[in-house]
Amino acid sequence: MKEYFSVADVAKLLKISRSGVLYYIKTGKLKAERVGRIFIISQEEFGDFLKSNKEHKKSKKRDG
């Protein structure tokens, strides 16, 4: 069975605001499913987001 996170859960894990998480969703950087009026993020999609974000940070450090 798939596990899901709420926007608030992801915000706590990333130590950012809920609006920051919504920004990532709206820009397509974090994939989420809309259920009624809320978004849910699968554990798998959250993991993919973390991996791509980590790789992005590494490439930024090399460029700087």
Q: Would you report the number of β strands?
A: 3
- Identify the quaternary structure here: single chain
Low-confidence blocks of residues: none
User: Overall pLDDT, averaged?
Assistant: 90
**Sequence of strands across the biggest β-sheet:** 1-3-2
> What is the element string, with H for helices and E for strands?
EHHEEH
Helix content: 55-70%
In DSSP terms, counting alpha (H) and pi (I) runs of 4 or more, how many helices?
3
Beta-strand percentage? Answer: 15-25%
Class by SSE composition: alpha+beta
Taking all Cα atoms into account, the compactness measure Rg is 13 Å
Termini separation comes to 42 Å
Biggest sheet features:
3 strands, antiparallel
Global outline = globular
Layout of SSEs?
Blueprint (H helix, E strand, L loop, with lengths): L3 E3 H8 L3 H9 L6 E3 L2 E5 H21 L1
Helix pairs in contact: 1-2
Distinctive features:
64 residues, alpha+beta
Overview of the structural elements:
- With 64 residues, this protein is of the alpha+beta class.
- It has three helices and three strands, in the order βααββα.
- It has helices at 7-14, 18-26, 43-63, and strands at 4-6, 33-35, 38-42.
- Strands 1-3-2 form a three-stranded antiparallel beta sheet.
- 14% of the residues are buried.
